[in-house]
Amino acid sequence: TVSLGGTGQAPVAALSPASLDFPGQSVHVTSAPETVTLTDSGGLPLTISNVSVTSPFAIQSSNCPSPSSSLPAGQGCTINLTFTAGFAGTTFGSLVVSDNSLGSATQTVSLTGEATVSFGAQLAGTTSVPQAVTIANGSTTKSVTVTSVTATGDFAVASNPCGVIVPGGNCAPMVTFKPTAGGTRKGALVITDNSPGSPHMVALSGTGEDFALSTNQVSATVAAGGTATFTLLVASQGGFNQTVNLSCALPATMAHATCAVTPSSVTPSSATAATPTVTITTTAPTMVAPQFRQRPDGLPGVPGLFGAEPWAHRHVPLQMLWLLALALLAAVAASCVSPLRSISARRSSPLQLSRIARALTLLMLLAWAACGGGPAPVHLAGTAPGNYTITLTATDPQASLTQTTTVNLTVSQ
């Protein structure tokens, strides 16, 4: 018996990496190339019989041997791949190399491409029309099972019909865009499935149309009776160009003051901010002279007795009773002044009565004079000293967009 021994030789092929991803691509725009390396780690040359790739992936260039040619043992070569999306969404595909490798006659690289979905301009706070995002299985041999589809940012999945995608099949979740602010808004559609590299992300983008509200200064100080002015800045965001209504609200504690915005509505443009003016007017406290009322006959009135004129009342006032009482006392005093009599008993009584009547008359005249002065000056209150916060509001009635800002006003004495 003769023992025979030896070492077997065979080509051993490998492709790396096992998967490639082309994220964030624009529709109909070819991506930058990504590279796959084919190596032969065996002891014999590797003969390549075929190299294929599923569309919309393509081989841009390769230094690997052409079909029916061999790659020397221990050597490697590269294949450069690109992705050109035909629609917004995700596409699965593969690169397949057929050869005479030991153990497996084919080597495969899983490919995934994601094309950005753009929603264009949308008013902030409003929801766009749903847009389809296609998930396509470009493989000719394997199914793809989608387990979930979610969205991030200002985007939402309105419906998701995806499940098992057969080879060459596709599905199309519907996605909406509701911007929460102005300017460029970005998000992603996250697709979880059983393919290499999962989860896959499709870039989502849109522009929110809104406006910003601010002031040229945040505070001012005026004396009571003075006027403060502020300049509002209404700036467009994301191309917003609609009419905005403006208003000003004083706090309830800020009495005897007014606030106005001029003009009361503006239309900002993307190039220039609108600059309406806010005017806050305060009131100084004052003393006002009494007002004299007109008499029924058209003659100027005078300050009335005890603060009112007799003709200002429908009923007989207290002043008229005073006049009657004075007349009666005057009559008594006049009747008591008679010729002196010789008898002292008869003379003392009339004289004493006359003196009493004259004294009472004098007292009543003094009382009338004291109470017959005009009314006191009237005090009119002004804006009380203090610190006040004024709220400025801008509203787009069509889109129900509202922005607010505040300014502080200090009123001194």
Number of helices: 2
Helix content: 10-25%
Mind telling me the C-alpha Rg? 50 Å
- Mean residue pLDDT: 84
The assigned structural class equals mainly beta
The CATH homologous superfamily of the largest domain = Immunoglobulins
For the termini, the CA-CA separation is: 125 Å
Please give the CATH class of the largest domain: Mainly Beta
Tell me about this structure:
- By secondary structure, this protein is mainly β.
- It has two helices and 29 strands.
- The strands form six sheets. Strands 10, 13, 15, 18, 19, 21, 23 and 25 form an eight-stranded mixed beta sheet that branches. Strands 2, 4, 6, 8, 9, 12 and 16 form a seven-stranded mixed beta sheet that branches. It has a five-stranded mixed beta sheet with strand order 20-29-28-22-24, with no helix packed on it.
- The radius of gyration is 50 Å and the shape is rod-shaped.
What brief labels describe this structure?
Immunoglobulin-like, 29 strands, mainly beta, 413 residues, single chain, 2 domains, eight-stranded mixed sheet
Topology (elements, then pairings):
Elements: E1 13-16, E2 19-25, E3 34-40, E4 46-53, E5 57-62, E6 69-71, E7 76-83, E8 89-99, E9 106-115, E10 117-123, E11 131-132, E12 134-137, E13 144-151, E14 155-159, E15 164-165, E16 170-171, E17 174-177, E18 183-193, E19 200-215, E20 219-223, E21 227-237, E22 244-249, E23 257-262, E24 265-266, E25 277-282, E26 286-288, H1 318-336, H2 344-371, E27 378-380, E28 386-396, E29 401-412
Helix pairs in contact: 1-2
